[in-house]
Batch of 2 targets.
Target 1
Amino acid sequence: MKRRKRMKVLGQWVTLEHTDLQSEELWGDCDVAKRHIRIKVDATDDEYNRVLRHEVCHMRLGISGLSELMTPELEEALAVLAETP
Ligand SMILES: [Zn+2]
């Protein structure tokens, strides 16, 4: 599956980096200020799609400002909910 290098989230361009996150024991992360998402490079397509939906949810909550109104635990729970289409 071709993996995009950028996508629009809430009308703003977000860059996608597929990188080795093994040393950090992460599947992905999201830097809202830099509009940048990293996803583990060796994820299978199913894992990739799940992580992308999770990180895009964090990005949507961050760009919209909603993440400022909730606890980190609530934001994480919403991101987990977003993993499954
Ligand atoms: Zn998360």
Note: The chain has a mean pLDDT of 93.
Target 2
Amino acid sequence: MKRRSQIGRMPKQKVCFIVSLCNPLLRLHSTSIFLHLDNTVRRQSGDFCLRLFFTEFIREYAMVPFVDLSALHAPLQAEFERVFREILSTSAFIGGRAVAEFESAFAQFCGVQYAVAAGSGTAALHMALTACGIGPNDDVITTAHTFAATVEAILHAGATPVFVDVDEETYNMDPQKIEAAITPRTRAILPVHLYGQCADMEAISAIARRHNLLVIEDAAQAHGARIGQRRAGSFGDMACFSFYPAKNLGAFGDAGMVVTNDADKARIARLVADHGSPDKYHHTLLGYNYRCDAIQAAVLAVKMPHLEAWNERRRRAAARYTERLRGLSAVRPPRARFDHIYHLYVIRVPQRDALKNFLAQRNIAAGLHYPVPMHLQPMMAGHPQARVGALPVAERIAGEILSLPMFPDITDAQIDEVVGAIREFFSST
Ligand SMILES: Cc1ncc(COP(=O)(O)O)c(C=O)c1O
């Protein structure tokens, strides 16, 4: 018993040091042998030290999760508990001070005047489109290489998404293709800052000004990403963020935000989120329940001061990936045209599916963002662009992109493990 508690207190660095001594040994064996060994040790050994050793061993070397937020949250636990206790003591579970405080902190962070919290990023997009007065008979120009929510929000507003193809290098909306898609029905352009890099907002804003169109940014993946000194969220008439837990700034559930410099649009977005009700039981427009929980706002307020440092750790991890992947001609690493906060680190590789399976066999989780472009999704049947060949770049990259594990606490050893496995794949094919 005494021995167990001593080892339980053994600092992680010490365990890691022991593990690192075994590094050369590790290189001689495949991951599966170690997983097998680990299971045997867990089953047969009553020795806590040995079991802890193998658990750390597997965590450090033999398994790379796609996202792991436990290390990010652990140092903030006392702060989380404090704000939970505060909310419990006031019973202000929806809206209230926690939401108002986070709204003003987030508006300041983005460099805009108004922020309106939402129940999700999807709700935020719908709120923004409605606040911009976009509805039936309106076209909204957007990208098909995005998460479904971008397009769902346009459709739920009653408008029609018109897709322009993406840039071959950044995978964001290609500004050169926008003007050909503008018709008298076009009301807005809705670019997505995909993977953590802003779309070319200078070019997009110039086109919007020329044609008198609104711009709504989908910044769900770009908290803190900049072009020059300006942050995502500060370029358009309105912008929308998601705080889904795995985002660079993530809640403990669903939450989102609309930001803008337009007081009237902010006012309408707030009404839309709360049953169109400026005063209790008075409803001036048709709204929804898109409100943000106080607990989510409080969690986000605790996490926000760390966002820049976490983004920097993602940039550093991305730089290591890119440097280690150098020389592999079949792998195209991401191209950062502007400041990139690497919500996702996405490579492009022709043998994508085979590589993903190979990584899975080595317990390395990789993702697909996104395997089917929006215009080819069954939900878009009947849309004028719902055919193969309509958006050649988006269609081509959908079969070649692969998102590698990325989170602020990813270790150098984990990155090297991933790259080592990718190199092994190419040397064996
Ligand atoms: C580009 C993009 N837009 C919108 C959303 C929707 O956000 P939420 O999941 O918070 O509704 C997401 C979330 O993944 C997203 O990645």
Note: The chain has three domains: 2-62, 74-304, 306-427.
